[in-house]
Amino acid sequence: xxxxxxxxxxxxxxxxxxxxSAIVLAREGARVSVGDINVEEGQKTVRSIEExxxxxxxxxxxxxxxxxARRLVEETVRSFGKLDVLFNNxxxxxxxxxxxxxxxxxxxxxxxxxxxxxFWCSRYAIxxxxxxxxxxxxNTASPSSFVGWAGNxxxxxxxxxxxxxxxxxxxxxxQENIRVNAVVPGLIxxxxxxxxxxxxxxxxxxxxxxxxxxxxxxxxxxAPVVVFLAQDDTEFATGAPFFMEGxxxxx
Length: 251
Prior knowledge:
The chain is α/β, with parallel strands linked by helices. The protein has a single domain, classed as NAD(P)-binding Rossmann-like Domain (Rossmann fold), CATH 3.40.50. It is built from eight helices and seven strands. It has a seven-stranded parallel β-sheet with strand order 3-2-1-4-5-6-7, with helices on both faces. Helix 4 (about 105-130) packs parallel to helix 5. The protein is globular. The N and C termini lie far apart (about 35 Å). The mean pLDDT is about 95.
């Protein structure tokens, strides 16, 4: 029960990394607010938490929009009385192509979901973290925050922005006991990751060879890092990437 008494928001908590993290955060004693546009799967995450004896709520929201992000924070505080942890996890990857051939709408939507959502949620969460005497913000970055590859310009650019924003917020709020870090998953077989795999020429080879350890990742591989970063014990870490990517960056 390393997070007993804590209140956590998880965006993109309906499926994948968000779902797995919300469940494990609750197992460690946190009360969890699941924010997502996917009502059916989001409510399923809440039921999974409640079936294990935890406390959770679901808030339907598109956190790329300011009012939805504000409402997510407000409903969380209204339900649980405070906020200690914000996990900015929601993201998309339309595998849109290069800057020459992608649709402009894909470029804009990718940044709205992957970057603007962090801006909006953090903008309204940080005043609540201050009231609680500090807290933790965890952003989902990507190996593409550090390296590039072909045909994925908007996603790669957006995740580079996520890592830079993580560092900026860490510096802005270091004196307020608000620690801001990033988890960096590799290829995770969530709905988002599986969709990317299926768009490759040889999906099975990609699954087996993209990571040096010889397998893809799963949402349950990432959740323990989120729990670690949510704890008070990580007080000395801020502005940092925490890699969980099967050796992808090291090769």
